[in-house]
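Closing statement on the nicotinamide-adenine-dinucleotide sub-project.
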Amino acid sequence: MKKIKVGIVGCGFIGMGKHLPSMMKVEGVEPVAFCDIVPERAQAAAKQFGGHDALVCTDYRDLLNRTDIDAVHVCTPNSTHAEISIAAMKAGKHVMCEKPMAKTAAEAKAMLDVSRETGKLLTIGYQNRFREDSLFMKSLCQQGELGDIYLGKAFATRRRGVPTWGVFMDKEKQGGGPLIDLGTHALDLTLWMMENYEPVSALGSTFDKIGKLGSPANSMGPWDPAKYEVEDSAFGLVKFKNGTTVILEASWALNTVISNEAMTLLCGTKAGADMFPPEGPGVRTAEAQAAPTYHVRVNGENAGKLYLQNYAMGAAFIGDGSQPERFAGGTKEAQAWFRAVRGEAELVVKPEQAYTVTAILEAIYKSAASGDIVRLG
Ligand SMILES: NC(=O)c1ccc[n+]([C@@H]2O[C@H](COP(=O)([O-])OP(=O)(O)OC[C@H]3O[C@@H](n4cnc5c(N)ncnc54)[C@H](O)[C@@H]3O)[C@@H](O)[C@H]2O)c1
């Protein structure tokens, strides 16, 4: 089997935590080039994951010049996704870019266009699609178990989970806060389950009230409110061509006990389904986070009675099964991606789908700023 050679741009949290460990588990894949504007990070990544002749660089163009690289993983801040992905595809590489696809819909469209022009694959790092609960719920939708789905709720809510490393609070570099950061995952899951990519309008609200106050209770450490430039919570209502409606909630800091990251709830004519534990939505305890068990609850009516059926499924364990995967779904995401790179399967996360997610998020931000409904499509 010919080896797939990979270059990674951005050796920070997600590069080191998901991409590199996940690709190491896929047979016939080898990371050969490591780029980061902070040289020590590229060196550390090469030391941990690369061979003795690995390329270490601070300018991604040096990595793209290597003709033996088949695929590039873009793991840098959001503002750089379009530039680096486009340059990589033009240099003849397939691209896996981290979520969100880009800061703006125009940038995402440019990425999509270059993928079509060059014939190079482009996918986005929506690993939540590959979690066990997501795959099960998707299979229910595909089998028509829910009937015609006309309402979706996309949840990406944290009580106090402001990411304090990197540039997450920098509006210019990231494009926004929890909506573009977490909301993108939940909305992707919801649209994928519904197979509905025809949004027509969006209405949104954003807040930065706790962001501007600060919080010593933040799970990722305190932040400086003076440097807090993005929203801390965002809410959207999206309408689709066939009338289907999606309600999106995203927060890094919100006074709520309901903390559910990258989850969806669907209501159809035959049944409804969500990803909550048997007792309903609630706080994810430290215990549940350490060894998560996934749930899908299906509700409906049968023989004149209402029912609620709970399906519990194990976490995405790795290795000897004792350690939960840091990014659940990460290994399956990598396996699916490299199957597509080998031409053995279609992409699971298609760039057209990620473009629609990006366009909706942008419309919610625009609506929040203007106070008006924003038309899409
Ligand atoms: N899929 C997920 O669940 C998930 C989780 C976290 C982050 N992310 C995404 O991953 C991306 C990176 O986030 P992170 O948490 O790893 O941040 P990070 O700050 O830990 O890592 C980013 C790295 O990119 C480097 N970098 C910045 N600009 C660069 C450039 N032009 N060329 C080369 N290197 C550059 C930085 O020095 C840093 O080491 C973001 O887009 C974020 O949204 C996705």
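The radius of gyration is 20 Å. With this model delivered, the sub-project is considered complete and its resources will be redirected to Aim 3.
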